[in-house]
Amino acid sequence: MIEDPLAVLDQYLSHRRAREAEVLAAGRRRNSGATPEALVAVIYQAVKPELHAVARYSVWAHLRKLAAEGYVLSEDAESIDAPWWTQNAAPASVRLAGLRPGMNSPGVEQEPDAHDLSAL
Fold first, then answer.
1. For the whole prediction, is pTM greater than 0.85?
2. Which of 23, 40, 81, 113 is 20 to 30 A from residue 52's alpha carbon, by CA?
3. 5-95 fold
């Protein structure tokens, strides 16, 4: 039994926010589009390579959330193999595709703020 579920949840959310910051920072360091796989190679260097395939899905989920919040862009948010850019580094073809700051990427719905624990 979990003695203090709110503390566990807080720790989990803190870890997710830290990982999200790593995803965004790794994307900002690149001048070209980065796939989730490329970001995993940078972010998860200390993790066994056989776990990278699973980590790729986690990074993709972070990218989709960041896209919904207007921080990153992709030509195809539905494809785990598609490259992603930060707003300032995106090529004109991606920016002109209608993916502008504050707009959701196709197929990415806005979700409630995961940082807000007031509903608990």
1. no
2. 113
3. Arc Repressor Mutant, subunit A (1.10.10)
